[in-house]
Design goal:
Length: 210
Amino acid sequence: MNTRRFSLIDRGLGEIDKAIKVLTTHPRSARALPAAPVEQALPEIQRTLSARLMRVNHSGEVAAQALYHGQALTAGDAAVSAAMQHAAAEEADHLAWCELRLRELNGRTSILNPLWYAGSFVIGALAGALGRGASLGFVAETERQVEAHLRSHVQRLGGADPRSRAILEQMTHDEIQHGAQATSLGGKQLPFPVAAAMRLASRLMTRGSY
Ligand SMILES: [Fe+2]
Ligand SMILES: [Fe+2]
């Protein structure tokens, strides 16, 4: 067995380890939760709605981890890899915040998360292999779609659940930065059918997790 085979196996095991961590552990955030402590319990109808929305967002962040891990695996560009790593760290905060809020709301995470992880990892790895412009363009388009989706959730929450809302607003702010960074590093506009297919996939995930 040669060194190259060893390193391939190592990388494969490393990726499995990352996937298991995302899917099974309670992640810790580097930044504090961007929200004031809970003051009072929400009415049952609002609690159910908030838990559903946060479950969708948690699944989205599971998928984001997989996308970034997949891309980092196949992207050959050091600057791109560094940008992905920085974004992935912030995405890890998002994952931790969503999970924590979901637990506070007595909600559970989606049982479909392994599926979203696997699918997103493959898509990320394919995007990473397409080269710098397409790969970063893919990140920019993803973040644009996530931003639009988060804004719609903020609107649905209105003033009824300020704690969840504060989390989603900070996430929106971060996703805008990720998208802008990808564009400034050379991300190209994706062809319309690709962007439309991505929207369709995210709608599928939103429905499945809701
Ligand atoms: Fe995120
Ligand atoms: Fe992001």
